[in-house]
Specification:
Layout: H1 2-10, E1 19-21, H2 23-29, E2 32-37, H3 47-56, H4 60-65, E3 67-70, H5 74-86, E4 90-95, H6 100-108, E5 112-116, H7 120-134, E6 137-139, H8 145-151, H9 153-164, E7 172-176, H10 181-193, E8 198-204, H11 209-216, H12 242-249, E9 252-256, H13 258-272, H14 278-290, E10 298-303, H15 310-316
Parallel strand pairs: 2-10, 3-4, 3-6, 4-5, 7-8, 7-10, 8-9
Antiparallel strand pairs: 1-2
Helix pairs in contact: 1-3, 1-8, 1-9, 3-5, 3-8, 8-10, 9-10, 10-12, 13-14
């Protein structure tokens, strides 16, 4: 029970986020819909969980050397935040496309930031190579069993919170998918302790990387278009462990359009008072697209983050 062990390990460093019943979504769809509000995590994203589990498991000698990560946003914030709490040096590699506001936020946590010309995958490759050459630990955003187990603590919390609310097992969970660490962690835990729960993977049509890799049965290069779901974009490392995990745990796959993502963002803001980033809206949009299949059932939507960039925030708040 890796996620259960991780849950106990990270508890002092990570918030237990609310599991909130959405009255409006439930009434309009006929399902009993709960929102797991990871947007209320300390860094505004679920990524803090995986980073905490990984860094807390480092031997003292490796921790003293420091760690290296690659991310243009949420994962970098998570590693930098936990590293600062543990007194651990952190270096982060970002692509040249990083949002300046996010870069400044990462630097404010005392992390050293290096810019790589190219995309996020190149930044990951550069970071891993630098870590190997310097004898430091590379903290992958998804391609690491300890990180995946940390993300799985969301499933541990959901089951605990539903139990406290008097509910039993739930029928489905909707999860946005990038590299696969989040759905891998949640799915792995639920397949063991709540096997009747259906794991639904959700992707933007403009960036269906792991979706296409699953179709191909191997990791391939997948063309991407701009998407509001910035946090789920980017290619996958050739040896990523998440492909095999995703093959085992994902029961259903849903693709959503950019218009559906924006509509879901606006709806969750107006009806549930939650300002979320595009990746979180992907999961909401996927549920709305398939809601007819879940009438009379209990559904959890993972609101994976709330770090919407200023342009998206303005569009969400348009009258």
């Amino acid at each position: 029970m890796e996620a259960a062990n991780a849950d106990r390990r990270i508890r002092a460093h990570v918030r237990e986020t609310p599991l909130r019943h959405s009255n409006r979504l439930s009434k309009s769809t006929g399902a009993s819909v709960f929102l797991k509000l990871e947007n209320l995590q300390e860094t505004g994203s679920f990524k803090l969980r995986g980073a905490a589990n990984k860094l807390l498991l480092l031997p003292r000698e490796l921790a003293a050397r420091g760690v290296i990560a690659a991310s243009n946003g949420n994962h970098a914030l998570a590693v930098a935040t936990i590293g600062r709490k543990l007194g651990m040096p952190v270096e982060v590699f970002v692509s040249e496309h990083v949002d300046p506001v996010r870069r400044n936020r990462i630097e404010s946590l005392h992390a050293i930031v290096r810019t790589v010309k190219g995309d996020s995958l190149l930044a990951e490759q550069t970071a891993r190579r630098t870590a190997e050459q310097s004898g430091r630990t590379y903290v992958s955003p998804y391609n690491d069993g300890k990180v995946i187990a940390g993300q799985g603590t969301i499933a541990v919390e959901i089951l605990r919170q539903l139990s406290h609310a008097g509910s039993g097992a739930f029928d489905a969970v909707f999860v946005a998918v990038g590299g696969g660490g989040l759905i891998g962690g949640i799915g792995s835990h639920l397949k063991t302790v709540s096997p009747s729960t259906r794991i639904v993977g959700c992707w933007p049509e403009n960036s269906p990387v792991l979706y296409e890799c699953l179709r191909a049965g191997e990791i391939i290069e997948v063309p991407e278009k701009p998407t509001l779901s910035v946090s789920t974009t980017g290619g996958m490392e050739a040896e990523a462990v998440t492909l095999a995990i995703a093959q085992q745990v994902i029961d259903r796959k849903v693709l959503v359009t950019e218009a559906e993502i924006l509509a879901a963002s606006r709806r969750i803001y107006r009806e549930d008072d939650q300002l979320v980033e595009g990746a979180a809206a992907v999961a909401v949009a996927a549920f709305l697209k398939s809601a007819g299949d879940y009438a009379g059932k209990t559904v959890v939507i993972v609101i994976c983050g709330g770090n919407a960039d200023p342009a998206l925030e303005a569009r969400i708040k348009e009258p």
